[in-house]
Amino acid sequence: MTEDLKPVSPAALGPDLTRRAFLYGTVAAGAAGAGGFTAFAQAAKTIEWWDQFAPLVPLHQKIWEEFSAKNPGVKIAYTQMNPADMMQALQLAFRSKRAPDIHSILTSDLSVTNQLSKAGWFAPLDASFNADTPFLKEALLEGMTVFNGKAYSFPIFSFRQHETSLWWTKPFMEQAGIDPTAGPKTWDEMRKAAQAMTKGRTYGLILPLQFTNRMANHVLDLAQVAGAPGRFDWRTGAYPFGSEPFVQAVEFLLSFQRDGSLHPASSSLDARQGRARWAAGEAGMFFDGPWNSGVVKGSFATVLDTLGAASIPLPSTGQPAFTYHTPPSGEFWISSQCEDPAIATKILQLFTTDAYYVGLAERMDQPPLDLSAVDRANVHPTYKTVVEGFKKVVRLAPEPLIKNPNVAQVYAEMKPVTPGVGEIVQGAMGGAVSNVKATLQQYADKLTAERDRAIKVVKDKGVQVSLDDWVFPNWKQGEDYTASHYKT
Amino acid sequence: MAMGQGAAPASAGVRKDGGSAGEIARQVWQSRWLYVFLLPTVILYSAYTIWPIVASIRYSLLDWNGFDSDGVFIGLANYSELASDPQFWNAFGNTLMFLVLAVPLRVGLALVLAVALNDPRLPFVRVMRTALFLPVVTTGAIVGVVMRFVLDPTGGPINVALLDSGLLDRPVNFLGQASLALYSAVAIWVWKWLGVTLIYWLAALQTIPKDLYEAASIDGAGRVEQFRYVTVPLLVPFLIIITLLTAVEATNVFDLLLTLTGGGPFYATEVIDIFVYRQAFAANIPRLGYASAAALFFGACIVLLAALQMAVRWQLRRRAGEAR
Fold first, then answer.
1. Which of A355, A473, B136, B310 is disulfide-compatible with B195, CB 3.0–4.6 A?
2. Which residue of B has its CA nearest to A200?
């Protein structure tokens, strides 16, 4: 690269060149001049990157090093965040104008994404970003990864996943008299297996009751295979938490406590602690997402080959059962305080390649956006089993935001409603909630009231939005609700 | 003294208008070193105490999620929402319950131990005092984490001992049972801070002149009578201040409870500190204005309680004075 070295003032450089870039450039030019070089050295850039994806660090590190090798002078400074502290750290960083260039936002909650977008946290991907695969194109949706027609992020994980696969240790399953490879298929079989595993200070099941978000997701998945549609009933727009499938799901979890087969420490455990105790042999079974294979491989490698896994257990066999998940949101976002969105976009583009999807599958975390990459990857059999289970069970859910992007403003207006499903399960287990159905119904009623309030506030501003945006009359059980369904 | 000298002409009415300002300036200049030495305290106190309070008052009038650079002014809406929020009142009730249980227990238990450990004839007095004070120097958050293991229903030493001794056939879920969790937290907090109150009491006991005990003994008073008619009356002034200090400490249990129970199960141990933290930081969508309103409202209630207590004390003293 050759350029004439002439003294220029920052003001003369125009708005595209920042003060920092100017300083770097000046220093580099000075260094080049002092060394007698004729070429202008490329300005040094450091891209600050914060996320909570600990299992993916080795994969990402490799990508960053390759990028730095091809783009001398560009370094990626990574900070691994504790999920519990991440949003606080980001808030403080944004307010003090020290936000990282690229960051994750921990939650896929669309109301959070939309509030952050409204607050101006994100910068759009540079025009050079190329969504060149059909599945990536389909994932770029207004209100989720696209705002006002501009792409801001993209998903790296498939929507075809849930957090309630059943994991077990084979010796425990053999002890319960159940095929250790197939595991229990139904709720009854699982309950009996847990009872048979409970002896002395070992228990059948351990649950992360203190991690209420995870518990809420377990209940949602279990309620869905028992016949509930999802977080709301897509046929009517109503919140179904007081319905029979949700009550059955909570009662199913409570039955382990009544049987004495639930590990008593469950009440004070989060997912990491629960997994550690399960891997240590204190319990035979554990509900978890597909990442369990990767985490066990990393932290409890000696027990990896004693693991068995299956898709979510069903209330009974013989009837089709599905869980529904909304289209995925983006994982990585370029901060509005990033001074080089073009470079950030170039790095992020590397997260859309087939090699990345295969690498992602091999980390055995959430399954990659291109699920077929799992077949080409070298992964543990349990990971393949749960991903195969997702293909059979998980379907794409309708999303009001895609039907009407103005729904984003309702999401942004809605305030959190508590106690939620996870807290209600915790309360029922701890003896604080005696009437599960009534408490779940109260939650549904509060959510309905909050959504109605938010819709009214947004409508009063002249925005076109209504409860009908939550109604999808053409939704059918067991089918993916694809882009074409929104048009009909 | 310079200040006294300066006050005289002003009070005498000489050069009342322009002169008083000049006089004040002269006094300030004469006492300049006093102000210079006060300055660090004033600056730090303003930055870390006054300013956060003033900022919280402003935040409490905003609807602010912390993502935006500033919130929307909503007047007293956060306060009216608090008034009808059952979770706030649950946290309020838990805080008061914690106070009501923990303060008398800590003050009373420490007094009993102090009386026992004030006896120099007791063997290993110093060792026992040190042992009781040791938990005080441990970080509250660490105590919370460690106590989760100690009280664990399966591997925790307390449950293991209870099960192995045959006293119980099923483990006790000290922290996971909603009806037990707050009591367990109170017990841990009392144990952790007992040493401080013990030191207060020991210091108070050592202010009582030995002559009084000797005189009581000559009059035929036994140990119980000496305690009742000599020790207790002379400790009453200390009791008031120790209780007040302990009550203030009992409203600051955030670190211990967050690590011990996180406010659970099902908000059974959620005190105001944790409620505020949950609203401001732990929720998916933070509510900084609402959290500020909750903190200020609770602070105002505590001030009101303290004022009431002072008013009652003043009234009692006045009546006692009239009776004499």
1. B136
2. B154
